[in-house]
Amino acid sequence: MANELLLDTGAFVALVDRSERRHADCVAVLDRWSGPVVTTEAVLTETLHLVGPRWRAQDACLEFVLRGAFVLVPASLESLRRVATLMEAYSDVPMDYADATLVALGEELNTSRVFTLDRRGFSAYRLRRRKPFELLP
User: Fold this and answer.
1) 5-136: what fold?
2) What does the DSSP 8-state code read for residue 8?
3) pTM assigned to the model
4) How far apart are CA 34 and CA 32, in angstroms?
5) Fewer CB atoms < 10 Å away: N or C end of the chain?
6) pLDDT at residue 76 tops 50
């Protein structure tokens, strides 16, 4: 099994916003994790939107990536094709674009560990429609 951890929006927001109810849980996951933490541009964009327009909060998000704590994986045409297929397949959940990019990235990296607060979505999603995700925290 791969050693990457996929980072979703809710956990990212909770890491940078101390007022979030799950902040301590998310910090604990990150403190215990020793492998690479990877995310997508869609997750970064969604996180920047959700932390609001204050520069300090947005800067904290960007600093995670800029200092190398999180690896930002850009989309390719192949991954975007897979995202479209996933969003159609999970339209009943529904699956948003950011989640679809993480599932596609999980398939590409062969990792099923996801750092998320979205238990509903990631409990329903499967890697290659078969393997369930391991949810942290």
Assistant:
1) Rossmann fold (3.40.50)
2) P
3) 0.95
4) 6
5) N
6) yes
